[in-house]
Amino acid sequence: QEVLSWLVETGYRHVCGYDIAPDGLSPERERFQQVLLLGRLREAIARLNPQVPLVAREDALQQVLNLDVPVQLSANRAFHSLLVNGVPVEYQSGGETRGDFVRLIDFADEAANEFLAVNQFSIKGPKHTRRPDIILFVNGLPLVLLELKNPADTHADIWKAYDQIETYKEQIPDVFQYNEILVISDGSEARMGSLSANAERFMQWRTVDGATLDPFGQFGELETLVRGVLSPAYLLDYLRFFVLFEDDGGLVKKIAGYHQFHAVRSAIEQVVRASRPGGTQKGGVVWHTQGSGKSITMTCFAARVMQEPLMENPTIVVITDRNDLDG
Fold first, then answer.
1. Residue 178 and residue 181: Cα distance in Å, rounded?
2. DSSP 102-145
3. Count of Cβ atoms closer than 10 Å to residue 291 Cβ
4. Helices then strands (H, E): number in the chain?
5. pTM for the full model?
6. Is 323 or 66 the better-scoring residue by pLDDT?
7. Contact by Cβ (8 Å): 240, 84
8. Closest residue by Cα to residue 264 from 325, 313, 319, 306
9. Above 80 in pLDDT, residue 327?
């Protein structure tokens, strides 16, 4: 209940999963196997892509519904590409075939999207029905899953929440095709990780504004994470620029830590200011410690600076000192 109240304060609308279940008061799914809120997704696609004909918008919806990739992590990568880059479609216009991209999210205008926090959302898998604690939907897409353990239960610590998610991956796999962030907490501790992360890779999120560490104190990790990365404005920025897939013989999904997220945001601000007419033309330095994830920070920075309208097609020079970094 506390997490839901924080989410509502940051801009989500709370919906109870029982109400929108197939047998609920206001059903939004035909079957418990469905993990998307199709009506909301269809409305968002229409709202964000008014220039695209209905037939092409429906094609985009079907592509999201049927990723057509059998391996979970590969399907997740395919979906992430559609989420960030748009869904490629073709349609006839003036006797010609036109290519376009259908947007699933408006990354530039937070208010153009719909943010829902849903608890008690039952999902039926091949053999089991499971109910994750909270799922965050953006435009009907289940992008964040939170598993929360009772802090009063001495047998249910944060790693029990991690184990629970590992079980969900086997038993209700469909929802993980669309997952961007996994969150585990036991009330005092809180960590987040990617779909491919092992327990060691689930990390704390220790700031909201990028300046103050642990603003809610030692036992406020969960609130810091909710307000610092899941609030709509932060989440949109994070999804667009701070989720990566690396394929070095085996596919791995990597998501940025709080220090990488805020370093890139600060660096972008400084580079834009420095590159303006009359600016110093000096972007400054980010000082990295060993093992802090320098390569990911620089990759995220490059992706972000290329999208910056004020930068006008920047040239990026990358110098590496090891062959494995070239990849």
1. 10
2. E-SS-SS-GGGS-EEEEES--EE-SS-EE--SEEEEETTEEEEE
3. 6
4. 11, 12
5. 0.96
6. 66
7. yes
8. 306
9. no
